[in-house]
Amino acid sequence: MGRPHIRRVAVAVAVATAATGLAGTAFAGPSTGVERSAASARTSASASAAAVVAAARAAAFAHASASGVSKGDELHAQDVMIDPEGARHVRFVRTHHNLPVLGGDLVVHLNNKLAYAGVTRAAGHAVKPDTTRARLTARQAASKAARAAKGHAGGARLVVDARGGGAALAYQVTVTSRGASHTVVVDAVTGKVRSDIPDSDEFLSPKLVRTLRKRGETINPATGSGSGTARASLVFDPGGHRAARYPANAKGTGKSLFVGKVRLTTTQTSRGHFQLRDRTRYGTETRDAKGSYTESFTKGKKFTSRTDVWGNGKTSSRTSAAADAQYGVTETLDFYKKTFKRKGIANDGKAAHAMVHWGKKVANAFWDPTCNCMLYGDGDGKMFKKPLVVLDVTGHELTHGVVDATAKLEPTYVDSDGNQYGEPGALNESLADIFGSNVEFFAHNKKDTPDFLIGEKLGLKQKFLRRLDHPSLDKLEGTIDYWSPETYYTEVHAGSGVSSHAYYLLAEGSGKRKIGGVTYDSPTYDNSKVKGIGRTKATAIFYRALTRYMVSTTDFHGARVATLKAAKDLYGAKSTEYKTVDRAWAAVNVTAANRPTARR
Ligand SMILES: [Zn+2]
Fold first, then answer.
1. Distance 429 CA to ligand 1 centre (A)
2. What kind and span of H or E run contains 185?
3. Cα(225)–Cα(535) distance, integer angstroms
4. Is 508 a residue of the active site?
5. Fold exhibited by the domain 420-599
């Protein structure tokens, strides 16, 4: 999971009060591959970001019954997305009498004349708490949180917890232990721990690790230092020949563990000295954590070289894993930029860093929003023999960063082992798999041929970890193919199958198909035949849905509505694409008719 949106509230408030800060992340430009009317977008794009935010805020209060905002609420803009046809979508977080509201996020939709066109909201109720007086002191709340999450508590601050239909006065506390942080929410009146959610997403869930251990399975991906697999950078021009002044861009070679020889844009710091840092991609860089649990990127040791060759294709060089990491991160950034014009993970033009050799025998990899970087452990040497630096893992994890910067989908429940549950969390995992496999298609590396499988290079007995065409073929996490009322209580990786399957059906259709050497056979709940609209269009629909029409509480029925809206924007309500979105969801048993009334 991504970081709970709680901590982000502070950031958003700061952005909203500084008009210049907003402009930095705002008008992202057309964020899907499809432009319908660039000319109209240009004329209507002249309204300033501040004017758009003001119009959206006024619209939210004018349409209070639809938006759910009420007296005492303040709206703080987090993001403004502009469509090619000129429509705007302003994402807000909320405070209530200056207290951050958890689960109070909403997106206000405006047409190209800045008139109200609808709202997507996380909470369907007014967030007025019964009391504004806390019984617990901040110190008492912090010590409760520290006990619950077994670590050291930072300061506690008062919030309104509006998740799950309530509106409770609560304390929000960050607890850290061994480099991992949790956000704990403690009821300010009863002292009950309302939630305890890890701030970073581990690629391998505690449940999966236990299953693998029970089965005596190991993760031991094959390495190789083959050559001729790299392709030239398509997106950026390193311009290395004007290298008289330093630092200068250089063309380096990575000898990676899993994707052969790859070309990397590096930095020449002086004559004969290079650093594993890519100035053409916002200064994205990989460092060596040297076995520490630091969440501070600046504490990582720089990778430097005299030859601009990085690694030797084997784990005997500490730099090989760094080559994989730097390659995976830059390919992911390029995928988002080239496909959606997204500039960096948070669309703010900032670097996405990576640290390899993180921690002592850590058998995992994760996106850490605190350091804005990917952290890769080396494996425990027993069950996990190598660093988890394969491409689709990186694409998956960085997509959690993208979700964190947009819809911030949250698990509804986390158990004491750290396993996460609930449909919004499952949707988050699914989007990470969908875009993660699209990163593979984008990278088109012969050493890691693109497919709709996740973790196919991990060396697992079932040959993959998860797959989008027929999720239930996975027996390790028990991923499901179809929605049912119980899905709301399913572990997030297992539950991810519902929307991953819908995405696959939308892209490629039902039945047998061979794509790039892999045979797929996608079933449907209602035995209907679905004809796919192609991966490019399906991906554009899901991206637009994520960035415009999803909020922290979006469940699978909400995702159906979001993707229908996105398809309508892009292709029209009478289009084959729109109808196929509807059919794909019906084929995984998500329909307008079976939406649970409690969550409508
Ligand atoms: Zn994940």
1. 5
2. strand 180-187
3. 31
4. no
5. Neutral Protease; domain 2 (1.10.390)
The single residue of 331, 397, 410, 508 carrying the catalytic annotation is: 397
Distance 477 CA to ligand 1 centre (A): 13
- What is the band of 43 on the pLDDT scale with cuts at 50, 70, 90? very low
Q: Give the Å distance between the CA of 203 and the centre of ligand 1.
A: 5
Distance 60 CA to ligand 1 centre (A): 33
Tokens of 429: 């995992």
Strands 193-198, 180-187: pairing is antiparallel
The CB density around residue 54, as the number of other CB atoms within 10 Å, is: 15
Nearest to 8 by CA among 101, 97, 71: 101
What torsion, rounded to 10 degrees, do the Cα atoms 205, 211, 212, 217 define? -160
Question: Is 423 a known active-site residue?
Answer: no
CATH number of 138-199: 3.10.450
Angle (CA) 404-406-409 rounded to 5° is: 60
- Compute how many other C-beta atoms are within 10 angstroms of the C-beta atom of residue 50: 16
Which residue is catalytic, options 109, 353, 493, 557? 493
Radius of gyration of the chain (CA): 23
Task: State in Å: Cα 99 to ligand 1 middle.
Answer: 30
Instruction: Give the SS3 label for residue 108.
Output: strand
Enclosing H/E stretch for 548: helix 535-549
How many Å apart are CA 16 and CA 109, to the nearest integer?
18
Whether 188 and 170 have beta carbons less than 8 Å apart is answered as: yes
- Backbone φ and ψ for 384, nearest 5 degrees, come out as -115, 110
Q: What is the pLDDT of residues 330-379, one digit of tens each?
A: 999 999 999 999 999 999 999 999 999 999 989 889 998 878 899 999 98
Question: What distance in angstroms lies between residue 439's CA and the mean position of ligand 1's atoms?
Answer: 15
Report the distance separating Cα 164 and Cα 119, nearest Å. Answer: 19
User: What are the φ/ψ torsions at residue 505 (nearest 5 degrees)?
Assistant: -60, -40
Tell me, in angstroms, the distance from the centre of ligand 1 to residue 494's CA. Answer: 11
Q: Which CATH number fits domain 248-389: 3.40.50.720, 3.30.200.20, 3.40.50.620, 3.10.170.10?
A: 3.10.170.10
Residue of 39, 119, 35 lying closest to 83 (CA atoms): 35
**Domain spans of the chain?**
5-121, 138-199, 248-389, 420-599
Most confident of 22-31, 43-52, 220-229, 555-564: 555-564
Task: Single out the residue of 223, 252, 251 nearest to residue 237, CA to CA.
Answer: 251
Instruction: Check if the beta carbon of residue 339 is closer than 8 Å to that of residue 539.
Output: yes
pTM above 0.85, yes or no: yes
Do the beta carbons of residue 109 and residue 118 sit within 8 Å?
A: yes
Distance from Cα 414 to the centre of ligand 1, integer Å: 14
Query: 438 or 447: whose pLDDT is higher?
Result: 438
Cβ proximity of 465 and 473 under 8 Å: no
